[in-house]
């Protein structure tokens, strides 16, 4: 249940600038995902273009095992934001270390990001990217506006994973992969 803290206790104004905040956040190592959904009516008249959109997101995390819930957050300014709000489903694809090109395409690519991307359609008809380490096919359960982002909570209808591949890791503005500690 949503419970707000006592209303007479307000947060202090930050004593730092946004770049400092971003640098502190960047110390937290994350995996990297590409999240895909429908773009109904997109690219009309261009048969070479797909009807999907996708974005690179490192804000993915788990929420609940029962029911199976995950979350991620989307910048309000993303051009795909209206589609992620309206769509009933999306797929979270966890990228492998050899998918840095896919990561960059879905973060910075212009035009149809799926044109050079190999994928198969899942049960919901959305792209599951070839080579993904894991994928979560989600019902778009709820959205929560907070600051300049919207938190999406997805209810996982189906998921899958592969063994043996290394993950793509993002930390300190750089990409790497994992090495087990001795
Ligand atoms: C490593 C990495 C992680 C990112 N994580 C997020 C994220 O969690 N949420 C987000 O809104 N944008 C994130 N972005 C930026 C989006 O990928 C980018 O703004 C988006 O693809 C813009 O697409 P659109 O405007 O066409 O929707 C990330 C970018 C990179 C390179």
From TrEMBL:
Source organism, top-level taxon: Bacteria
Keywords carried by this UniProt record: Oxidoreductase
Flavin reductase like domain mapped to chain residues: 25-177
Molecular-function GO terms, alphabetical: FMN binding; riboflavin reductase (NADPH) activity
PANTHER family per record: FLAVIN REDUCTASE, FLAVIN-DEPENDENT MONOOXYGENASE, REDUCTASE SUBUNIT HSAB
Family: Belongs to the non-flavoprotein flavin reductase family.
Protein's name according to its UniProt entry: Flavin reductase
The species this protein was found in: Limnohabitans planktonicus II-D5
């Amino acid at each position: 249940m949503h419970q707000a803290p006592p209303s007479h206790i307000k947060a202090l104004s930050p004593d730092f600038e946004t770049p400092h905040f971003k640098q502190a956040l960047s110390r937290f190592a994350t995996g990297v995902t590409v999240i895909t959904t429908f773009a109904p009516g997109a690219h009309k008249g261009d048969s070479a273009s797909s009807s999907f959109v996708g974005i690179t997101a490192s804000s993915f995390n788990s929420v609940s095992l029962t029911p199976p819930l995950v979350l991620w957050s989307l910048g309000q300014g993303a051009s795909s934001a209206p589609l992620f709000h309206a769509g009933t489903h999306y797929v979270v694809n966890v990228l492998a270390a050899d998918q840095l090109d896919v990561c960059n395409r879905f973060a910075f690519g212009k035009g149809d990001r799926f044109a050079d991307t190999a994928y198969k359609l899942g049960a919901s008809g959305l792209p599951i990217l070839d080579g993904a380490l894991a994928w979560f096919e989600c019902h778009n359960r709820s959205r929560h506006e907070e600051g300049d982002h919207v938190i999406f909570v997805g209810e996982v209808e189906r998921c899958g994973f592969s063994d043996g591949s290394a993950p793509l890791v993002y930390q300190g503005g750089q990409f790497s992969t994992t090495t087990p500690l001795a």
